[in-house]
Amino acid sequence: MENATAGISIRPSKNPRLTSGAAPLSFGSTAADHMFTCTYGNGAWQEPSIIPFQQLSLSPFTLALHYGQSVFEGMKAFRMEDGSIGIFRIDRHWERLNRSLHRMCMPPVPEALFRAALHELISLDRNWVPASPGSLYIRPLVFASEARLGVKVSDQYEFIIVCSPVPPLYPDPISVKVEKNFTRAASGGTGYAKCAGNYGGAFYPTQQAREEGFDQVIWTDESHQYFEESGTMNLMFVIGGRLVTPPLSDTILDGVTRRSLIQLAMDAGIAVEERPVHVEEVREALTAGSLTEAFGAGTAAVVAPICRIGIDGISYSLPPYTAESISEKLRVEFEAIRTGRLADRHGWMEKAGR
After folding, report:
1. CA 207 to centroid of chain Cα atoms
2. To 5 degrees, how large is the angle CA 123–CA 332–CA 346?
3. Is the confidence at residue 3, as pLDDT, over 60?
């Protein structure tokens, strides 16, 4: 049976895989029952639809496979205390998606289409949203679908949204290596965009770090003097009781989790500094004991405490994390807001449905 809601054609699955019980949690390997899809052609987005989750059929000539026009977002939906489903900060994710699309010469996704697609898809697959500490990871994806061998901006695109129930990405504190040979992003490049190539280029140095016993890398700038990001997360330090984080630039992703944690820290009266952070400053603060916390912040990880930092072959251990750690207090409050256990005073959550 097919119906249409908010201009979106909806074809429910005849064989839903989750009819009762809790969704299985594994990061990014279990798909919910449905997916959203919409094609761009002739200068406009055409006939959006929600269909049963299925494989894609692509020509080997598909431009995205050759020239990298592919952009995605990472979002989450949560099961709220009152039983409803809340989607976190739709507006910020839509804005960032379109900034990335603009950088990659790809057509913008209208806000009304983005918002309606999320509401209808999450409402249809609401049984897949796990209770806390799990969440429903949402992956909007736009890629060049024109079939042509030739270096050109595509005239055709696919906009897809898929979902997966997930646990927290890093259940335990992580160890990181400060990367001083490879660079994640260069000034004037695509570092601020959430495009596929940024991630593929990071695999090799990350793999090397893991062979050396680390979980992730901390990226530095082109001079390898200043910190930028940690793996696929924004980076934060607690130095002398102040929350310190590198400033946004065209080489650093404007993290929605980063913005939210900064807001919560300021609400709590914690001094926040968005400024360049020199590697030597951190080394000295680690040695002196004034750097008491370091953590990554991102959609998948939320807050990922760092227990060990490797700099130039020397490992520095951080103090154990406790319930009194700033990162833990921010994480607990953040999760309480996103699950409805605390008031949503900044209006970050939207309940799925119409």
Report:
1. 20
2. 60
3. no
Count CB neighbours of 340 within 10 A.
Answer: 19
Q: Assign 188 to helix, strand or coil.
A: coil
SS3 144: strand
Tokens of 105: 């010469």
d(CA 238, CA 228): 15
Encoded tokens for 246? 């590198």
Q: CB under 8 Å, gap of 24 or more: what pairs does 89-98 form?
A: 89/256, 89/260, 89/348, 89/349, 90/114, 90/115, 90/118, 90/350, 92/256, 92/259, 93/140, 93/256, 96/194, 96/254, 96/256, 97/71, 97/73, 97/140, 97/142, 97/194
**Cis amide prior to 48 (ω within 30 degrees):** no
- The 3-state DSSP class for residue 217 equals strand
Residue scoring higher pLDDT (180 or 24): 180
150: which DSSP letter?
A: S
Contact call for residues 120 and 5 (beta carbons, < 8 A): yes
β-pair type (216-220, 3-5):
unpaired
Asked if pLDDT for residue 4 goes beyond 60, the answer is no
pTM over 0.70: yes
Contact 168, 227 (CB under 8 A): no
